[in-house]
C-alpha cells in the first residue's frame, strides 16, 4: 500500500510540473513587485514580436524586432520559465533570428506545458523540426496545423505553409544523396557575432568580409554593432591571418556590407544605406589604400533597395539583388543586371531582370558570377530549397541561363546558407550560414569539393613562352579535391624594377593574338606592383606591360583547350630606357623557316612603333636569333632576314631608317640551353636593343 502511494505521489508531482504557470497575479502573491517588472518586460516583448511577425507575413525585413522581443522575454523567463505562452513566444522569435537552433527547446517546452497554448504551435514546431532535419516530424506538424486551424492566419500564410511542406520533401531527397564536399567553420575568421558575405580573391589568397563584432562604435538598441569590412590573408602554412578592420573610408559608423572583390583585386563592391534605402557603391584600391566608395549609376541604384552585387567576368555588366519591380505579382527580391554603355565605366543601361528561369516568387538573396563567365551562384528561398536560403548554380548556354541546380547537402541545410564565393579553380568556395554548431550568428564556412582523384591537369608556376606551338607544361597529379572542372588560368604576380627590385606601377594589356582584340586593360598596384587576373583556356594571349621611364615588356601566353585550372605566377622585371637595354618581342611570329612577319605580330610591333614615336631620340637595333639546329650559315641568314623584315614593318609605319638597324646573330647568342626543346624555343626570338636615346 505504501508503494502504491509513492507511485501515485510521483505521478501527481510529474503532472504538476507539466502544468503551465501563466503570468497571473494570483500565481505570484508573494512576489508582487517582481511580477509587475516581469509583466512589463513581457508586454514590451509582445509589441516587438507582433511587429516582427507582421513583417514576415508582409515579406518584409523584421529588422531588430525579434531580437528586441527576446531581450524583453529573457527578463520575464528568469522570473517564470514555466509559462507555456512565454516559451512559445520565445520559440517563435528565435525562428527568425540567426540563432534559429535555439527555438526547438522552447517550443517543445511549450508543447509539454500546454499542447494547446497557441494555434500556431504546430506551425512553429514544424519549422523547428525542419531545421533539425526531422523532415517527417515537421511534415506531421504542418499537416496538423493546416487541418486543425481555423485561424485567418492560415489564409494569410498562404503559399508559405505550402512551401514549408514542399521544402521538407526536397530536404528528404537532397539529404539522402549528399554531395562529395567538406564544410568547415573557418574558426579563426569568425566571431561570436554575425560574420558574412565573404569576398574571395581569384587566387584564393585574400578574403574581405563583413562582421558585426565589437568595433568601437556605438551598438544599437539591442546591442548589435554596425557591419564593418574586414580583411584576412592566407599564409604559406595555409592558415588565415587574424582579421583586420580595413578602417575608413570603407568601414564607418554606419552599416556597410562587402559584396564582391573584383577578379583582379583592385575594386570592391559594397552596399550601404542612403536614407531608408540600400544602394550599391564601388571602391578602388589605390596603392595600399581603398578609396571612398562611390555610388554606382542611377540606372542601377533606383528608389528601391539594391543590395548584394557582383561583376561579371569581363566587367561589362553588374548583377545585383533588388526589390521586385512595380507591378510584380509577388513581393521580395530578384536578381537584375545592368550593362555598361559603350565601354563606359560610369554609365549603365536600364536594369533588366535576369529572367524567370532564375528569379522566383520568393526572395533571391545574393549573387556571384564565377570568372569563367558561364557560371552563376546565387541564394534563394525558392526553387527546390530545403528551407531558408539555399545556394543554387545556373550555367549560361547559348546566351540563356539554365534551370538552377541546388548545390546539395551539406552545402545547403534548412538554415540560411548564402553569400557563395568561389576560387577560380572551383575546388574551394566560401559561404555564410547560421546553421547550428557555429561560433555565433552567421559564420563563414569553407567548402572543399571532392571528386574523382588522380586526374591530370596542366599546372605550373611559370610557363609564359615565346611560342604558340610548344608551351612548357609541367604535368602533375591533381589533388583529389575537385569540382566542376574550370578551364581557367589565374595569372598573378608583380611588376618590379629590374635593377632595384622595387614595385613599379604599370599598365598591362591582354590581347587575344588570334583576333588582335584587347581583352583587358588594367594598372598594377602602385604600392606593391601586384596584379591578378583570370584567363579562359583555348586562346593564345599577348601580354604587354608599359610604365613611364621603362621599356615596355611583352609575354606570349598559350593556354591549350584541354587545360583545366592552373595557377601561374610571374614577376615581371621592367627595364629603364637606357643605352644597352634589351627586350625580347615575344609576340612577333614567323612561319617555320620563313621571314615573313605574320599578322598576329601587328599588335606587338605597333606598341614598338608607339614607343619610338613617344621617344623621338631612341635608336634601336633589331636582332634575329635562332637555336643551334641546322646549318649556322642558314640560321644566320634567316635571323638577318627576320630582323630586316621587322625593320621594314617599322619603316612602313613611319619610323625613319636612320633610327633602325637590323642584325642577324643566328645561334651565337643563346639565352637558354639548346639541349631541350624548351630551351631551343626560348632561343628562337626577335629582340631590340637601345643603341641611343
Account of the 3D structure:
It is a single chain. This protein is α+β, with helices and mostly antiparallel strands and 693 residues long. It folds into four domains: 149 residues, Tetratricopeptide repeat domain (Serine Threonine Protein Phosphatase 5, Tetratricopeptide repeat); 269 residues, Neuraminidase (6 Propeller), CATH 2.120.10; 122 residues, Immunoglobulin-like, CATH 2.60.40.10; 116 residues, OmpA-like domain (60s Ribosomal Protein L30, Chain: A, 2-Layer Sandwich), CATH 3.30.1330. Helix content is 24%, strand content 29%. The protein has twelve helices and 35 strands. The strands form nine sheets. Strands 6, 7, 8, 9 and 10 form a five-stranded antiparallel sheet that branches. The longest helix is centred in the first third of the chain and has 26 residues. The protein is elongated.
DSSP strand (E) fraction? 25-35%
Separation of termini?
Answer: 118 Å
Class by SSE composition: alpha+beta
Instruction: Give me the count of strands.
Output: 35
Unreliable residue stretches: 1-17, 453-483
Q: Number of helical segments?
A: 12
- CATH architectural grouping of the largest domain: 6 Propeller
Oligomer: single chain
Largest sheet: 5 strands, antiparallel
Q: At the first level of CATH, what is the class of the largest domain?
A: Mainly Beta
Fourth-level CATH superfamily of the largest domain: TolB, C-terminal domain
Q: Tell me, what's the shape?
A: elongated
Count of the separate structural domains: 4
Mean pLDDT: 87
Radius of gyration: 32 Å
Give the proportion of residues in helices: 10-25%
Amino acid at each position: 500500500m505504501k508503494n502504491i502511494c509513492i507511485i501515485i505521489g510521483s505521478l501527481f508531482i510529474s503532472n504538476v510540473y507539466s502544468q503551465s504557470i501563466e503570468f497571473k497575479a494570483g500565481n505570484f502573491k508573494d512576489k508582487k513587485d517582481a511580477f509587475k517588472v516581469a509583466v512589463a518586460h513581457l508586454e514590451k516583448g509582445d509589441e516587438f514580436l507582433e511587429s516582427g511577425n507582421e513583417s514576415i507575413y508582409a515579406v518584409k525585413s523584421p529588422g531588430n524586432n525579434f531580437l528586441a522581443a527576446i531581450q524583453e522575454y529573457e527578463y520575464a523567463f528568469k522570473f517564470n520559465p514555466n509559462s507555456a505562452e512565454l516559451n512559445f513566444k520565445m520559440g517563435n522569435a528565435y525562428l527568425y533570428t540567426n540563432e534559429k537552433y535555439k527555438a526547438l527547446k522552447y517550443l517543445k517546452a511549450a508543447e509539454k506545458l500546454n499542447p494547446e497554448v497557441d494555434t500556431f504551435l504546430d506551425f512553429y514546431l514544424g519549422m523547428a523540426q525542419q531545421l533539425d532535419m526531422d523532415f517527417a516530424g515537421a511534415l506531421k506538424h504542418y499537416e496538423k496545423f493546416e487541418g486543425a486551424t481555423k485561424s485567418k492566419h492560415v489564409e494569410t500564410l498562404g503559399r508559405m505553409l505550402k512551401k514549408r511542406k514542399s521544402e521538407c520533401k526536397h530536404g528528404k531527397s537532397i539529404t539522402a544523396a549528399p554531395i562529395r564536399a567538406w564544410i568547415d567553420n573557418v574558426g579563426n575568421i569568425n566571431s561570436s557575432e554575425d560574420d558574412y558575405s565573404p569576398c574571395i580573391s581569384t587566387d584564393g589568397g585574400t578574403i574581405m568580409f563583413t562582421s558585426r563584432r565589437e568595433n568601437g562604435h556605438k551598438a544599437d538598441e539591442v546591442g548589435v554593432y554596425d557591419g564593418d569590412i574586414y580583411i584576412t590573408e592566407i599564409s604559406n602554412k595555409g592558415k588565415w591571418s587574424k582579421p583586420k578592420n580595413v578602417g575608413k573610408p570603407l568601414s564607418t559608423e554606419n552599416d556597410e556590407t562587402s559584396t564582391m572583390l573584383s577578379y583582379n583585386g583592385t575594386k570592391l563592391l559594397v552596399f550601404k544605406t542612403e536614407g531608408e534605402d540600400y544602394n550599391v557603391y564601388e571602391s578602388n584600391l589605390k596603392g595600399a589604400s581603398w578609396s571612398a566608395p562611390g555610388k554606382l549609376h542611377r540606372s542601377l541604384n533606383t528608389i528601391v533597395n539594391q543590395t548584394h552585387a557582383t561583376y561579371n567576368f569581363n566587367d561589362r555588366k553588374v548583377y545585383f539583388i533588388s526589390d521586385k519591380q512595380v507591378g510584380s505579382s509577388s513581393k521580395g527580391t530578384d536578381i537584375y543586371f545592368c550593362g555598361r554603355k559603350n565601354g563606359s565605366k560610369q554609365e549603365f543601361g536600364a536594369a533588366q531582370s535576369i529572367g524567370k528561369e532564375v528569379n522566383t516568387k520568393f526572395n533571391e538573396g545574393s549573387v556571384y558570377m564565377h570568372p569563367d563567365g558561364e557560371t552563376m551562384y546565387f541564394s534563394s528561398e525558392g526553387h527546390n530549397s530545403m528551407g531558408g536560403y539555399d545556394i543554387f548554380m545556373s550555367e549560361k548556354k547559348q546566351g540563356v541561363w539554365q534551370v538552377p541546380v541546388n548545390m546539395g547537402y551539406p552545402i545547403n541545410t534548412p538554415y540560411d546558407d548564402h553569400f557563395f564565393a568561389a576560387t577560380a579553380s572551383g575546388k574551394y568556395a566560401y559561404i555564410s550560414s547560421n546553421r547550428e554548431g557555429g561560433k555565433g550568428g552567421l559564420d563563414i564556412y569553407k567548402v572543399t569539393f571532392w571528386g574523382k582523384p588522380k586526374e591530370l591537369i596542366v599546372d605550373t608556376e611559370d610557363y609564359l613562352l615565346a611560342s604558340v606551338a610548344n608551351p612548357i607544361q609541367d604535368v602533375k597529379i591533381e589533388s583529389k579535391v575537385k569540382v566542376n572542372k574550370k578551364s581557367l588560368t589565374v595569372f598573378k604576380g608583380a611588376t618590379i624594377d629590374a635593377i632595384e627590385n622595387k614595385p613599379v606601377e604599370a599598365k598591362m594589356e591582354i590581347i587575344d593574338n588570334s583576333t588582335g582584340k584587347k581583352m583587358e586593360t588594367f594598372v598594377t598596384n602602385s604600392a606593391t606592383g601586384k596584379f591578378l587576373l583570370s584567363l579562359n583556356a583555348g586562346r593564345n594571349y599577348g601580354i604587354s606591360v608599359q610604365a613611364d621611364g621603362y621599356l615596355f615588356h611583352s609575354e606570349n601566353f598559350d593556354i591549350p583547350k584541354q587545360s583545366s585550372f592552373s595557377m601561374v605566377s610571374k614577376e615581371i622585371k621592367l627595364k629603364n630606357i637606357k643605352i644597352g637595354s634589351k627586350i625580347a618581342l615575344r609576340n612577333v611570329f614567323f612561319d617555320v623557316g620563313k621571314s615573313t612577319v605574320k599578322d598576329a605580330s601587328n599588335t606587338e610591333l605597333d606598341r614598338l612603333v608607339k614607343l619610338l614615336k613617344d621617344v623621338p631620340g631612341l635608336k634601336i637595333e633589331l636582332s634575329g636569333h635562332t637555336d643551334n639546329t641546322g646549318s649556322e650559315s642558314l640560321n644566320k641568314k634567316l635571323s638577318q632576314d627576320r630582323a630586316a623584315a621587322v625593320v621594314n614593318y617599322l619603316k612602313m609605319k613611319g619610323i625613319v631608317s636612320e633610327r633602325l638597324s637590323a642584325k642577324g646573330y643566328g645561334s651565337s647568342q643563346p639565352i637558354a640551353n639548346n639541349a631541350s626543346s624548351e630551351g631551343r624555343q626560348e632561343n628562337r626570338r626577335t629582340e631590340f636593343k637601345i643603341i641611343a636615346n
